[in-house]
Amino acid sequence: MLTNKVSCRARFEGAWKVIKQVLLDYITGEGMPKDAIELYERNIDYNISGGKLNRSMSVVDTAEIVKGPR
Q1: Over the stretch 29-69, which tens digit does the pLDDT of each residue have?
Q2: pTM of the shown model
Q3: CB neighbour burial string for 19-57, b if at least 16 within 10 angstroms, e if fewer
């Protein structure tokens, strides 16, 4: 189970890098000021990669438990 959690977290982190860049590219393209983009990036890093990541991973774990083995 631990290996699965490590794998799931690694997959999320890999996907998050792509999603984050898409979001940053979008707001940059919309003409947001540089300081606003930097603030937004710090905010999403703190919230997504910080405590919210643990909550998100718990939701995934719970769904897998309820769903049962693949």
Answers
A1: 999 999 999 999 999 888 887 767 777 778 777 888 898 87
A2: 0.69
A3: eeeeebeeeeeeeeeeeeeeeeeeebeeebeeeeeeeee
To which residue do tokens 């393209």 refer?
A: 29
SS (H, E, C) 3-65: HHHHHHHHHHHHHHHHHHHHHHHHHHHCCCCHHHHHHHHHHHHHHHHCHHHHHHHHHHHHHHH
Q: Mean pLDDT: which of 12-16, 20-24, 44-48 is highest?
A: 20-24
* Nearest partner of 38 among 28, 30, 47, 29, judged by Cα: 28
Residue of higher predicted confidence among 64 and 4: 64
| DSSP secondary structure code for residue 69 in this structure | -
